[in-house]
Amino acid sequence: MAKKAASSSPKRFAYERELLERGCTLIAGVDEAGRGPLAGPVVAAAVVFSVDQITLGLRGEWKELNDSKQLTQKQRERFYELITTETGIQYAISIVDVEMIDRINILQATHHGMNEALAKLSVQVQHVLVDGLKVKSLRWPQTPIVKGDSLSYSIAAASVLAKVTRDRMMHAYDVEFPGYGFAAHKGYGTEQHLAALAKQGPCAIHRKTFAPVRMEQGELFG
Fold first, then answer.
1. Residues 5-12: contacts with CB within 8 Å, 24+ apart?
2. Which long-range contacts does 23-26 make (Cβ < 8 Å, 24+ apart)?
3. Are 64 and 156 in contact (CB under 8 A)?
4. pLDDT averaged over 10-residue windows placed end to end, the chain, 222 residues
């Protein structure tokens, strides 16, 4: 499939429309949230827009749908509500816990989550649009798209579902494991998080195989 030039205009169904012309009518966008943090799960999501939505285009506030990192928290929450309630949209979310991340590594855990989210969809997907590089283990035909979350509505929608789901989980973990600041940094290795890690040591949702956490464990228990 030909590469599409990045554009600020929301022509974000170009990849989907090209696949429609090739006879694919069930096209999923897939994305993840949480590969980089030191704590918490990695979350993957898959979203399938209807043929009518792809053909006619999105209207109104939907046109602002974009990479979750380009949206405010309020916008992400609003789009989460829209995506999960709009007629014609199919979606699924997969949560891969810390134990699996430590067991099979974060890259494989992320790909496992993507496969699981796609398998959980209530429709049989014919083609997948993936943000970034090709996912070798994916069980469906795919098109990897660099910066795909800003070039494809399908991938953007998946990025919103993954990001909001994970952020909500980290807010809940902030209550369960106080003192780390999970609600603020979502598990990323900020100065606040590293200071709390050094003071309190790792908790149950820290990724024990990640270097800063592994170092703290060594200092505490080695």
1. 6/147, 6/150, 6/151, 7/151, 10/58, 10/63, 10/64, 10/65, 10/153, 12/65, 12/150, 12/151, 12/152, 12/153, 12/156
2. 24/126, 24/127, 25/51, 25/126, 26/123, 26/124, 26/125, 26/126, 26/127
3. no
4. 48 95 97 97 98 93 93 97 96 98 97 98 97 94 95 97 98 97 97 94 95 71 40
Q: In the 8-state DSSP scheme, what is residue 167?
A: H
Q: Please enumerate in sequence order all residues whose Cβ is within 8 A of that of 195, keeping only pairs 6 or more positions apart, or say none.
A: none
- CA distances for 200 relative to 52, 75, 159, 194, angstroms: 53, 34, 32, 10
CA distance 24 to 37: 36
Do 55 and 17 touch, CB atoms closer than 8 A? yes
Q: How far, in whole angstroms, is CA 174 from its chain's centroid? A: 20
185 burial level (CB within 10 Å; 0-12, 13-18, 19+): buried
Q: Which helix (H) or strand (E) holds 81?
A: helix 73-85
Q: Check: CB of residue 43 under 8 Å from CB of residue 96.
A: yes
Report the alpha-carbon distance of residue 208 to residue 95 in Å, rounded: 18
**H or E stretch including 87?**
none
Structure confidence at residue 221 (pLDDT): 41
Beta strands in the chain (DSSP E): 27-33, 42-48, 90-96, 127-131, 142-145
